[in-house]
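Example: Beta-carotene 15,15'-monooxygenase.
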Amino acid sequence: MEELDLLKKAWKKDTHSYEQVSESEIYNMLHRKSSSIVKWILIISILEFALWALFSILFNTEEAIKNLHAENFAVYLKILTYVNYVVVVLFIFSFYRNYAKISTITSTKQLMQDIIRTRKTVQYYVWYNLFMIFISTILGFVMAFVYNPEMAPLKYKIAHEDSYYTLTITICMIVATVVVFVGGFWLIYRLLYGILLRKLNANYKELKKIDL
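Written out as structure tokens, the predicted fold is:
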């Protein structure tokens, strides 16, 4: 923002005619910066989608399900996977539309509106991904508990021995694992998208000053 700060200082010092030129220059700079930020949001979302798709290919879920004899569970996982892919592709398309709009905008008010729309879309995207990670983690624990033979001693203990104590400890361990896992992804998303959103918000504030 150093270049922007210098322009703003010059804008305040010089004549009215130079003020109009400076306002235009500031807008153009904010326009370019905003367009670049939204482009990076689009690129990161595409790379993230590709990474998850690659992970899904490398980690053969169907083979793991067959080994656990959890074929009944496979239907729900497939539905969840396909729905997730469709929703993520729609988000990516929305990011592309936001980028296309911001790249061609000539109105300060319209640019401000599209910045707000982009920020909301990114926030919805992050919360959706965290929700899906949460659901996937819970389903993973359920599948392991129900179908994994190694869980037999734990299930017997819950059913016949210190059921309340064992069940409480098990639930606490699952909750702690889910919190750590989802929290880790939240930190990653905060790092990836949070920085870009803060820059986009700073651009919005500067545009708001011009629009006054």
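Helices lie at 2-13, 16-58, 61-68, 71-103, 108-147, 152-160, 163-211.
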